[in-house]
């Protein structure tokens, strides 16, 4: 996968070269390039923002600078596989980013992230980009960050760990929270008893069918308690309904 990030703070993206994403780069699974937006600024001050039309506080990122950056990074508009790049624009005004999106993005060949700052990017950049690439405006939650860089770290990390060959054990993400529409239940490791708290008996029983049922039940109970909204979209079996009713 090719992953381009355009930002006015390239150093913010340094963690993408650590741990699992870093290993993905070393193994050639991920081709990461972080670009300084100011490289496309046209004036001596390398400014990338201007005052908003209509008045109001803050500054807006200029379409001229962003337009040139996208032109250079998305050339040709379609890669050898015939696929258009996907431009991801983090914004609190976007659709909520979910694990389903992470899976969808992980199947793409080229992701391009545009990090906003100040009051965000001139909307015409997004509208014009939509005519020649796929574009998604996504939010990582109902709160406002200072810039898009942290949102890119979140989204990129969620996507990169799904790329084949990145996780040592492919099953770990198949059993993660959200993979079956539910939250994952609790996990335990040694010692068997810690500060008078034993690990649940069933997990030490060696009975795989019973362990699977217990995990499913815990997952259902936790989801019902913390995120009941997820149950509507979950793939529930008849035995699950008894747990939810109890
Ligand atoms: N004026 C914008 C609004 O109210 O929608 C907020 C702009 S915010 C201060 C600056 C940048 O931070 C945004 O352009 C976006 O890139 C990023 N950002 C802030 N909160 C975010 C969130 N919850 N999800 C994704 N990106 C976010």
UniProtKB/TrEMBL annotation:
Can you tell which superkingdom this protein's organism belongs to? Bacteria
> What is an example of a GO molecular function annotated in this UniProt entry?
tRNA (guanine(37)-N1)-methyltransferase activity
Q: Where in the cell is it found?
A: Cytoplasm
Kindly list the positions annotated as binding S-adenosyl-L-methionine: 116, 140-145
Give, as one word, the top-level EC class: transferase
Q: Which GO terms describe its biological process?
A: tRNA N1-guanine methylation
Give start-end of the signal peptide: none
Its EC number(s): 2.1.1.228
User: What is catalysed by this protein?
Assistant: guanosine(37) in tRNA + S-adenosyl-L-methionine = N(1)-methylguanosine(37) in tRNA + S-adenosyl-L-homocysteine + H(+)
Q: Which CDD domains match?
A: TrmD-like
The residue ranges of the tRNA methyltransferase TRMD/TRM10-type domain are 1-231
GO cellular component terms listed in the entry, alphabetical order:
cytosol
Which Pfam families is this protein grouped with? tRNA_m1G_MT (PF01746)
Q: What is its main location?
A: cytoplasm
- List the keywords (alphabetical): Cytoplasm, Methyltransferase, S-adenosyl-L-methionine, Transferase, tRNA processing
User: What function does this protein fulfil?
Assistant: Specifically methylates guanosine-37 in various tRNAs.
* Matching PANTHER family: TRNA (GUANINE-N(1)-)-METHYLTRANSFERASE
User: What does the sequence similarity comment in the record state about its family?
Assistant: Belongs to the RNA methyltransferase TrmD family.
Q: How does it assemble?
A: Homodimer.
Which NCBIfam families does the protein's record reference?
A: PRK00026.1, trmD
What name has this protein been given in UniProt?
A: tRNA (guanine-N(1)-)-methyltransferase
UniProt source species: Dietzia psychralcaliphila
